[in-house]
């Protein structure tokens, strides 16, 4: 009965008492995630942007001349759909915060860069980001920070496949539940007919 209540099955995620460590990790992660979301909303509103627009500006700021960012690269970096990112980028272009220029090696693509107005907006924002990020992550050693960065990158890259698995398993379980419910609701006479061997055998 206890095993049926476990929320994971891989030995690496369990201990002698079951899934308590995993549950504790997730509770802490959700709590920290809420703090990150609140900080992101604070940062974005401080400079008059939506949270997604704020992230897009930061992503483009961190691009280089050797690795310029286009729409697809921003979408991949932020784990967002290309269509959604395109709409947000168009708004930022209209507001004069970023500019599009032809990609030097591929005429079908564009590369994105901050305008001076966009740079000024991020300079203003950085004065708020620095103390908040220092407070959020300042208890980590440099080695802790490197390990956390690597682990989160691996977890994020696997998240989409896990969500697709969730959809598949959910559909399968619902189908099985519906099948059992349908069988339980059959009249007794029909159940007997379904259970009777064919040709009297």
TrEMBL record:
A molecular-function term among this protein's GO annotations: DNA binding
HTH marR-type domain residues: 22-157
Entry's transmembrane regions: none
Keywords: DNA-binding
Comp. bias regions, Basic residues: 190-201
Pfam families reported in the protein's UniProt record: MarR_2 (PF12802)
Classification via SMART domains: HTH_MARR (SM00347)
Stretch list, region Disordered: 176-201
Matches recorded under InterPro entries: HTH_MarR-typ, MarR/SlyA-like, WH-like_DNA-bd_sf, WH_DNA-bd_sf
Domain of life, source organism: Bacteria
Protein name: DNA-binding MarR family transcriptional regulator
Source organism of this protein record: Bradyrhizobium algeriense
Taxonomic lineage of the native organism: Bacteria, Pseudomonadati, Pseudomonadota, Alphaproteobacteria, Hyphomicrobiales
């Amino acid at each position: 009965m206890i095993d049926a209540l476990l929320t994971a099955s891989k030995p690496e995620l369990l201990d002698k008492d079951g899934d308590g460590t995993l549950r504790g990790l997730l509770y802490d992660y959700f709590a920290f995630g809420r703090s990150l979301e609140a900080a992101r909303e604070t940062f974005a509103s401080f400079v008059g942007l939506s949270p997604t627009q704020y992230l897009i500006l930061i992503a483009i700021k961190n691009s280089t001349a050797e690795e310029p960012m286009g729409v697809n690269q921003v979408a991949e970096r932020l784990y967002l759909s290309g269509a959604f990112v395109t709409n947000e980028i168009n708004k930022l272009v209209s507001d004069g915060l970023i500019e599009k220029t032809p990609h030097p090696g591929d005429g079908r693509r564009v590369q994105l860069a901050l305008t001076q107005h966009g740079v000024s907006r991020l300079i203003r924002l950085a004065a708020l980001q620095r103390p908040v990020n220092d407070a959020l992550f300042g208890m980590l050693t440099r080695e802790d920070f490197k390990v956390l960065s690597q682990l989160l990158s691996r977890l994020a890259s696997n998240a989409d496949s896990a969500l697709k698995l969730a959809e598949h398993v959910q559909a399968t379980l619902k189908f099985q539940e519906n099948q059992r419910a349908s069988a339980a609701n059959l009249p007794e006479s029909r159940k007997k007919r379904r259970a009777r061997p064919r040709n009297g055998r």
